[in-house]
Amino acid sequence: MAEMIEINQVEKHYGAFRALGPVSAGIAEGEFFSLLGPSGCGKTTLLRLIGGFDEPTVGSISIAGMDMSGKPANMRPTNMVFQSYAIFPHLNVSENVAYGLKRLRLGREEERRRVDQALSQVELSGLGPRMGNQLSGGQRQRVALARALVMRPKVLLLDEPLSALDKKLREQMQVELRHLQRQIGITFVLVTHDQYEALAMSDRIAVMFGGEISQIATPKDIYQSPLSRQVADFLGGMNFLTAGNIATAGEQFSADIPGIGKVTGKLAAGTDTSTAPVIGIRPERLRIVWEGESADPVISGKVADRHYFGEVTNLAVEIEGQEKRLSVVETNDFGADDIPIGSPVRLTYDKDAFVYMPN
Amino acid sequence: MRGSSIRKGVVTAYVALYVAILYFPVLLLPVFSVNDSATPKLPLTGFTLKWYSGLASNETMHSAAWNSLLVGVSAALLSTILGICAARAITRHQFTGKGVASGLIMAPLILPEIIIAISLLVVLLSVGIELSLLTVILGHLLICVPYSVTVLVSGFEGFDPSMEEASRDLGETTWGTLRRVTLPMLAPSIISSLLVTFTISLDEFILAFFLSGTEPTLPVYIWGQLRFAAKLPNVLALGSVMIAASLVMLTVAEIVRRRAEARTAAKTE
After folding, report:
1. Higher-pLDDT residue of A259, A25
2. Which residues in chain B are closer than 8 Å to A135, comparing Cβ atoms?
3. B165 to A72: CB separation less than 8 angstroms, yes or no
4. Dihedral through CA B135, CA B139, CA B140, CA B144, nearest 10?
5. What is the C-alpha to C-alpha distance for residues A218 and A228, in angstroms, rounded to an integer?
6. Pairing relation of β-strands A244-249 and A187-192?
7. B235 found inside a domain
8. Coil, helix or strand at residue A22
9. CA dist A11 to A307, B165, B212, Å?
10. N or C: which end of chain B has fewer CB within 10 A?
11. Cα A62 to chain center, whole Å?
């Protein structure tokens, strides 16, 4: 696939403060690309640079092969869904959606057809005459989406579009947005601080910290093969272990972990082995060995704490040689929610479950 | 319980007295304006409308009223336009000297008006500009702009800047965005600004007195009439008309403003 957006050594300074960069990235045509990171990491700044609301201090951005330097938002083939939705309250839903079409002078019939089509795409048919200030949060989000899509942009930019919705609606919209993106096939660039949102929707994710991109990869690679401790820590839980004799050879690493033993694993492609590493394991990759079961290898420990989360239980397990308790996530179908605090427990893991990360 | 009801009674009495002292003199105006006596004194002697009919044929008064209207409308429009520009710069942009600039805009509010009037007079005369309604308009602009800016800054702060960005994003130009989003969103504040500045200009006396030359505005005309005791009932009639006009104008403007506000207010959930 051709690159739709090319971000080339872009920096954004505010006075002496460098808010962003340097960052470089390529976003493919038809890709669902997410910028994920904590607040203040520069993800929204980058999105605004792509949309043309700000100009980069250094570097350039090109969209569909054209350099966008000096082109304001109204001259770019991008449209944005704003975090606040920015629905015009003095216009009704149809007028909101038709806002950008007015300048194209399509003729009344064609304009109406495209508005109706956009409204049906976001399942708001029939809501046209409703005023912009009489909509629910979910409806406003859909109007914002229709208003952007009706312009037939090459790239749709979404600035935390789901953060104002309640959990149930947010999950439903995640599915719908993903579905919509596949259906119309244009490039989506989503800004979010919600790791699950990014994992569930994206083709690729760029994880950002302190104004820079730490890693760009598919959701699965980001989660399973994080290239730094920071990325691993931001996406889900991770047990960082006390370890000795960490060594790498080719694509393999090995380490001695007190309380667990000698472990080996595969280095993720692109791992930086020049800095001090840390070894970790995701909480759900540790499993309880129930009575009567046999397993190899086995870690022995003691349940120190227990938190019930409905479908899963989170156990804190003390093992000898490890300063920090191991976090273990276990589904509740075998009774993990009933294990008494203080009781001994045996754990096992898959051989490839350990992760090597630059600290 | 008892203590609180006594306190409530005291507060009510205080408020009643306060309102009475504030508005009683104003109420006397229409009463004496229909009294059949050349001096505003009790007891009332009889009902008449002759002071009002006297107004209708008074051409000097008509031209003063026309001058005031001209000055008021011009000052209100110019002040609101300048206010929109200043308020937009203050709320939407960061620039060096912003604090100083907004301070200077607000300064006429605290400067004694007579000082402003005399300084303006001295400068205008030394530069050789003749006194006219235009100089009055400029003077009024100085004291009206701070009010416009105050009203419009809160208007700009009340609406989400991403709406203007959304308009740009949807292909609209800067001017198109101003026309299709910013001005409609600001309509309530613009109406308030026009109203406030028109009212300020209409009854402003000191600047108008110093700067109007041979074309008096209504307050300057009224002040001139007060020297003749016989004209007092006419002035009272004129004052009553002005009160009535103000009330009508205020009511209409408030209705329009509320409509505009209901249209632009974001839904609060």
Report:
1. A25
2. 267
3. no
4. 140
5. 15
6. unpaired
7. yes
8. strand
9. 43, 22, 58
10. N
11. 23
**Domain total in chain B:** 1
The answer to whether position B131 is within a domain reads yes
Chain A nearest-CA distance from B84, in A, is 19
The pLDDT, as a whole number, for residue A1 is: 53
Residue whose C-alpha is closest to residue B208's, from B96, B131, B146, B122: B131
Q: What is the fold of A3-229?
A: Rossmann fold (3.40.50)
Domain interval for residue B135: 60-264
Residues of A in contact with B158 (CB under 8 A): none
What does the CA dihedral A332, A334, A336, A339 come to, rounded to 10 degrees?
150
Residue B257 belongs to domain with CATH number: 1.10.3720.10
User: What residues in A contact B265, CB-CB < 8 Å?
Assistant: 89, 133
Q: How many residues does chain B have?
A: 269
Structure tokens at A45: 């700044």
Q: Tell me the per-residue pLDDT of A12-65, one tens digit each, with 9 for 90 and over.
A: 999 889 999 899 999 999 999 999 999 989 999 999 999 999 999 999 999 999
pLDDT tens digits, A125-176? 888 899 888 898 889 999 999 999 999 999 999 999 998 888 888 999 999 9
- Kind of pairing, strands A155-159 and A78-81? parallel
Chain A contact for B165, CB < 8 A? Answer: yes
Alpha-carbon gap, residue A88 to A82, rounded angstroms: 12
Of A53, A74, A133, the CB nearest to B172: A74
Is-contact B209 B220, C-beta < 8 A? yes
Residue B177 lies in a domain: yes
- What letter would DSSP give residue A102? G
* Cis peptide bond upstream of B30, omega within 30: no
Taking residue B269's Cβ as centre, other Cβ atoms within 10 Å add up to 8
Is there a contact between B225 and B235 (Cβ–Cβ < 8 Å)?
yes
Q: Chain A contacts of B171, Cβ < 8 Å?
A: 74, 100, 103-104, 151
Tell me the CATH number for domain A237-358: 2.40.50.140
Number of H helices, E strands in chain B: 12, 0
The type of residue at A285 is R
Query: Which helix (H) or strand (E) segment is A244 a member of?
Result: strand A244-249
Each domain of chain A, given as residue ranges in start order, spans 3-229, 237-358
Judge if ipTM > 0.90: no
